[in-house]
Amino acid sequence: MTISLKLLILSLIISAISLLGWLDFVKFSLNVILSPIKFGVYELAVGAKADLDFVLHIASLKEELRNLSEENLSLKSLQSEVRELTLENTALRDQLGAASDRTNNSMIFVSVEGYVFGSSGTRLILDKGKSSGVVSGMPAVYKDYLVGIVGDVTERSSELKLILDPDVRISVLDENTRARGIVKGNFGTNIIMSDVLNDEKINVGDRIVTSGENPLIPQGLIIGDIKSINSNEQAIFKEAYVRSLVDYKRMEKLFIVKVD
Amino acid sequence: MKIYPIVVLIIFVLGILEVSFLPVFGIYADPVLSFLLSLVYTTNKEFSLKTGFFSGIFIDVVSSKRFSTFTLFYVLVIIAAFGITNLLGRRLVYLLLSSVIFYALEQVMMGSPFVLSGALCTGVLTLAFIGLVSFGLSKSRSGNLRVNI
Lengths: 260, 149
Description:
- The structure holds 2 protein chains of 2 kinds.
- Chain A is 34% helix and 31% strand.
- Chain A is α+β, with helices and mostly antiparallel strands.
- Chain A has 3 domains: 3-55, no CATH class; 65-96; 104-260, Beta Barrel (Thrombin, subunit H).
- Chain A has a 6-stranded antiparallel beta barrel. In chain A, strands 6-7-8-11-10-9 form a 6-stranded antiparallel barrel.
- In chain B, 77% of the residues lie in helices and 0% in strands.
- Chain B is built from 6 helices and no strands.
- Chain B has helices at residues 3-21, 31-42, 45-62, 69-88, 92-110, 116-142.
- At the A-B interface, α1, α2 and β1 of A face α1, α3, α4 and α5 of B.
């Protein structure tokens, strides 16, 4: 028997044993040693990338600082407005006896260990799995931003499909006009909001949030802002490119939302 | 000094680099695949197949996919690469084209978007590894490195 045939048969035997789940323990045990190395290298890469970006963009930082100062001023005024609205909202909820939408959700804190091998950067490896209550389909958030949806889950690790991944489909709506659509990844490069009825209104700069139609994904998680719109009068639907405000290449700590 | 510890170290470093380092910088290549194809070009079938098999096992451990996915994939890739070289001749251009095709197949297998820059990067890495492995092997033959290939 040739070496090719021997190794091919051996690979198929391993594959069969793996299907029965008998090799999971070996994988988990080895990952206990490898996880800290992967996490350390990933943190090192994120740090190095941040330093490199700083050096490369040092010229534009001055202008960015000026813009941020202006934005900060407008945000401060908005903050006081939000505070007033929150108080008003709480008072109204108390009066109606309704519970807050977010109180039913609990969070699972996860760390990013790296990218899924061969995923072209659209899927992350998370350090928690079934044993921590992670289930496929759960959303992962960074602050109020939706980062992605949990894919394959093993006992102690899981795969997170970023919004950029073409497999991800999420029902969304325009926060201003309430126009509905579906957000999906576009070959790992950007995010597209599609299936928006042509007579519904969407504008450049509008914020896109989750609509809450999927029971696992809470309403109101931010996807991003509309960057440009593609529409054709003869078509039934139009689509828009959505710009996310999250830098997916700097994700280190995330929360997985568990809807009870 | 035996060659196997060096190969194990190279595969370990390349595997960790692909999972945790290169994607942060927007580089979506498969350096392990490139390294294995460089072995197809520079060494014999038995050595390449054994390295491919054990590399696959290591990548199966670090990846989140089911165990045996990469073991089987890399063994098949090396068998196919030797098939191509036997059929068309051991030319660099065929191996570089193969690396792009195998990278694309890997993306299909993983259900990932095909990134052309990733495929090209894998091709460039294959070329670089062929140079480095050839250099390493020529040094080992003149030095004290024992290479049983």
